[in-house]
Amino acid sequence: MPVEVSTQEVRSAVQEFLKRFIDDVEGIDDVRLITGGLLDSLVAVQMIDFIQQRFGITVEDEDLEIANFDSVNGVVAFVDRKAGTA
Predict the structure, then answer these.
(1) In three state form, how does the secondary structure of 17-79 look?
(2) What gap in Å lies between CA 6 and CA 19, rounded to an integer?
(3) What is the largest CA-CA distance in the chain?
(4) Which of 62, 86, 79 is nearest to 3 (CA)?
(5) Is residue 2 part of a domain?
(6) pLDDT for the residue 46
(7) Which of 8, 79, 80, 83 would you call most buried, defined as having the most Cβ atoms within 10 angstroms of its Cβ?
(8) pTM of the model
(9) Is 11 contained in some domain?
(10) What is the mean pLDDT of residues 58-73?
């Protein structure tokens, strides 16, 4: 069952997760995380697992599009859609 959270709560949680891998997460909402080389594939998988656990959503095979996970804004929009808060 998806956890009810605001868009800002999702953004904050994703930024907090990214702090483990990126020194400065301020102002990176549109920065390409994966295709830009900031995150490798292992961290991308960890981020997907984090999203599923934290927000109670299931990432399906059809959800595995780079646009859903390549930026903070992309992740936030994806979680909003999956959680039904968009």
Answers:
(1) HHCCCCCCCCCCCCCCCCCCCCCCHHHHHHHHHHHHHHHCCCCCHHHCCHHHHCCHHHHHHHH
(2) 20
(3) 33
(4) 79
(5) no
(6) 98
(7) 79
(8) 0.90
(9) yes
(10) 96
